[in-house]
Amino acid sequence: MTVDRIAFISSSTPAARSACQRLRKRYGNVSLKKAEIAVVLGGDGTMLQTMHQCFELNIPIYGMNRGTVGFLMNEFKEANLLKRLERARPIELHPLLMKVKTVTGVKKDAYCINEVALLRQTRQAANLRVSIDDKVRMKELICDGAVVATPAGSTAYNLSAHGPIIPLGAELLALTPISAFRPRRWRGALLRDSAKIKLEIQEPKKRPVSAVADYTEVRNVKSVTILQQKDISLKLLFDEEHDLEERILNEQFIP
User: Fold this and answer.
1) If DSSP codes are grouped into helix, strand and coil, which group holds residue 4?
2) Would you state the pLDDT for residue 122?
3) C-alpha closest to that of 94 among 167, 163, 214, 193
4) Cα gap 92→209, rounded to integer Å
5) Beta bridge partner(s), residue 101
6) pLDDT single digits (tens) 73-109
7) For this structure, is 239 an active site residue?
8) If DSSP states are collapsed to H, E and C, what string results for 155-217?
């Protein structure tokens, strides 16, 4: 892949901004709308924001770590960037759509790459009803919350909540409870990525719950429906030695 028009995007940290200025001076810079490729400097948060901006642009995204975790990023190097872009391996991701209805009847939609998380807002545990493809599978889940994660997001919040790591291409979603109280031993479920997942908040005024899709939060929700959007594709580029699929596989063997 020969690249002429690059959009360089950075986080607000001094290290990322300084690197971005040097790369723009060295390789040029165009806006996202005119770019053939986006190069992101920062951490996973900046990468997620850029991915949201690229939903309708159909351009690949290549990240270099100038942040902290950097799970979605490649190693930062200023030299030979064009050759690295030409040799990078693509990974295709599909976002989740979160459809929320609040206790006051307000409806809001939001997309996410990693996961949708439902979280209790007060000291009282959440009381959720779980339906899959319009069939109630669990009438009552008492917990601090729940996570619905994509394969790319399965190593993030989902893993911290003791959910399963999902290999890329497995066409699965993870539904993982956060600190389940009842049923106490329920560890969650693996679902087809075509499943329609609905989480209804019971006693929403007494036990208020917020819903978060990446960096979009909606408070005092009454119900949340989650669907994967196969018609939206995002292409991430990785160096061979930093392949995302290999990273996800390695996470399963960390003691």
Assistant:
1) coil
2) 96
3) 193
4) 32
5) 107, 223
6) 999 999 899 999 999 999 999 999 999 999 999 999 9
7) no
8) CCHHHHCCCCCCCCCCCEEEEEEECCCECCCCCCEEEECCCCEEEEECCCCCCCEEEEECCEE
With cut-offs at 50, 70 and 90, classify the pLDDT of residue 1. low
Query: In whole angstroms, how far apart are CA 87 and each of 83, 126, 172, 214, 239?
Result: 6, 48, 29, 29, 7
Residue 142 phi, psi (nearest 5): -95, 120
The architecture (CATH level 2) of 6-94+233-251 comes to 3-Layer(aba) Sandwich (3.40)
Exposure b/e, 111-123, CB count within 10 A at least 16 = b: bbbbbbbbbbeee
Q: For residue range 45-59, list pLDDT tens digits in order.
A: 899 999 999 988 989
User: What does the radius of gyration of the chain's CA atoms come to, in whole angstroms?
Assistant: 19
Q: Is residue 217 scored above 60 in pLDDT? A: yes
Q: Give the closest residue to 47 by CA, choosing from 217, 252, 223, 214.
A: 214
Structure tokens at 168: 């890329």
Residues spanned by CATH 3.40.50.10330 within the chain?
Answer: 6-94+233-251
Neighbouring C-beta atoms of residue 181, cutoff 10 Å:
14
Q: What number does CATH give the domain 96-228?
A: 2.60.200.30
- All CATH 2.60.200.30 domain ranges in the chain, comma separated: 96-228
Q: 44, 133, 214, 231: which one is catalytic?
A: 44
Q: What is the pTM (predicted TM-score) of this model?
A: 0.88
